[in-house]
């Protein structure tokens, strides 16, 4: 499906990030759905949820899961603050910013960079992934417990915004404005 989507959407000639909608389960064992219809049934029965809807809805809300339920064609979504979807992109797309290792802002900064470079954000209507439960990572524990860790991440975010402003000028102001309104 991904290969066909890449060809149909002419991804090799187009600046686009193909969004793979993310779901999650709280069960350690799950029979992976074989189709979108099966996934929707599991979602309706409560054995699956949209990814992190209960702890970080901003991260995936722009995917527009209500639209995805009935979509048959890829659809475009707009960047929003803290958007961190899973994407399929060309190999020559901007790389993840190496400042953001461990927990926090790796996917957010990547999507901001893609948006700044005017990549289309296209949701694939028949793709999905499911996050399985696992023990919290060492890095998220550090983030939650250490004011120093959170302070360092904030400093890195500010540096990243400055770098975007230098590279993209006035077009990058929307990222800083969005950050300050949070």
TrEMBL record:
Q: What Pfam families does this protein map onto?
A: Glyco_transf_49 (PF13896)
A Gene Ontology biological process annotation? protein O-linked glycosylation via mannose
The highest taxon in the source lineage is Eukaryota
User: Which InterPro entries does this UniProt record tie to the protein?
Assistant: Xyl/GlcA_transferase
The GO terms this record gives for MF are: glucuronosyltransferase activity; metal ion binding; xylosyltransferase activity
Where is it predominantly found?
Answer: membrane
Q: Which UniProt keywords apply?
A: Glycoprotein, Glycosyltransferase, Membrane, Metal-binding, Signal-anchor, Transferase, Transmembrane, Transmembrane helix
**GO CC annotation, single:** Golgi apparatus
- Membrane topology (UniProt): Single-pass type II membrane protein
Where in or outside the cell it occurs: the entry states: Membrane
Q: What PANTHER family does the entry give? A: GLYCOSYLTRANSFERASE-RELATED, XYLOSYL- AND GLUCURONYLTRANSFERASE LARGE2
Q: What is this protein called?
A: LARG2 glucuronyltransferase
Q: Give the organism, scientific name.
A: Pardalotus punctatus
The primary gene name is Large2_1
